[in-house]
Amino acid sequence: MEEPRQVIVAHPEAATPAPAAVSTPSLKIPKGYQMLRFETPSGLWINLFFPHHSRAVGRPTDGRLLNGNCIRESGPGYIHFGPNSCATDQTVALLMFALGRLRKVYPGTPPLVIGSLSAPGGGRIPPHHSHQNGLDVDVGYIPVRDMGLKAFKKLAPSDIDFDRTFYFMAVLLSTGKVKYIFVDYDLQKYLYSAARNMGYSDDQLGLIFQYPAQRYKKKGIIRYSPGHRDHFHVRFTCPEGDVDCVE
Ligand SMILES: [Zn+2]
To answer: Residue 30 C-alpha to ligand 1 middle, in angstroms?
Structure first.
């Protein structure tokens, strides 16, 4: 069965009817830019413009990245470690957008720890199999207090802020441009209950999560993949127009 590729997830309590598309006839997308329109989990309608000069080529497990957009070692609300700091313009724009929303909704959130994206030109970066074409980003689970983390660390569940971590994921999901979020299986139940507490319905939870299905069931956007106990891995979709990109 075809899996859901793009799921727009809105916070049910804040759900408002979508403004008619005709209400923004004056929006012109400048050449070389891309626009995404979506509703955030708190009910904000967003028109996000970003330049689109990068090209994802091939697959995450056998691909390249042209004109990658590379993030700095640190920025407002995040620190990045390791050499692989580049991705598609879309990946970077959505990552930074979600980070901004997280900081707005949860002021005082400890800096997000960001690990590997892709190498400047993409390609294989051991030990990763994927991360080759600018669609993949590794992010640390958000701790309950600022521990001064500079790299990934295996945190006890009681030291992970699942509300903030899930909120960050929910903003990413709301963009409709996330294919998978790979997590540890045992941490899923905490994320699941954070989502339920935020007001997500059973139907929405069923689309978002693999849990409570077993760990090898191919289901949900948030799903198990080994090696994700100290971070989660976001796989974005191919940017529109990147015709040689495969997710
Ligand atoms: Zn990864």
So the answer is: 33
Residue matched to tokens 């609300």: 77
CA of 115 to the centre of ligand 1 (A): 8
Tens digit of pLDDT per residue, the chain (247 long)? 344 334 445 444 444 455 555 455 567 788 889 999 999 998 899 999 999 999 999 999 999 999 999 999 999 999 999 999 999 999 999 999 999 999 999 999 999 999 999 999 999 999 999 999 999 999 999 999 999 999 999 999 999 999 999 999 999 999 999 999 999 999 999 999 999 999 999 999 999 999 999 999 999 999 999 999 999 999 999 999 999 999 9
Distance CA 233, CA 180 (A): 8
30's CB contacts (< 8 A; 6+ apart) are 49
Cα(110) to centroid(ligand 1), Å: 21
CA of 63 to the centre of ligand 1 (A): 15
C-alpha of residue 26 to centroid of ligand 1, in Å: 39
Boundaries of every domain in the chain:
54-236
The DSSP letter of residue 21 is: G
How far is ligand 1, taken at its centre, from the CA of residue 137, in Å? 6
Given 3.30.160.270, 3.40.50.300, 3.30.1380.10, 1.10.3720.10, which CATH number is that of 54-236? Answer: 3.30.1380.10
- Residues measured by CB to lie within 5 Å of ligand 1, the ion: 138, 233
Alpha carbon separation from 71 to 94, 137, 155, 201, 241 (Å, rounded): 12, 11, 25, 35, 22
